[in-house]
Design brief:
- It is a single chain.
- The chain is an all-alpha fold.
- It has one domain.
- About 70% of the residues lie in helices and about 0% in strands.
- The protein contains three helices and no strands.
- About 5% of the residues are buried.
């Protein structure tokens, strides 16, 4: 999941930086803020993906436990 999160953060950051360079020159401060925000967003998205995966997987049925009956020899 870390690799997925990192890839997602980089993708978000590059797309925002591309839009930013169209309108104005970017500085190191802008770049750092964008990367930080992209990392936070990627972390939240990965968390949502995990929740969605968890909900989509069917729960395993638990079988009822059968009580073991003690034999007469063991009880004596």
């Amino acid at each position: 999941m870390k690799a997925k999160k990192k890839e997602l953060a980089e993708s978000i950051a590059t797309s925002i930086e591309a839009k930013l360079t169209e309108s104005a020159a970017s500085s190191k401060k802008f770049k750092k803020a964008i990367e930080k925000s992209a990392d936070k967003l990627a972390k939240k998205l990965v968390k949502l993906y995990k929740k969605a995966d968890k909900k989509s997987q069917p729960k395993a049925k638990t079988t009822s436990k059968v009580k073991k009956v003690k034999s007469a020899a063991a009880a004596a």
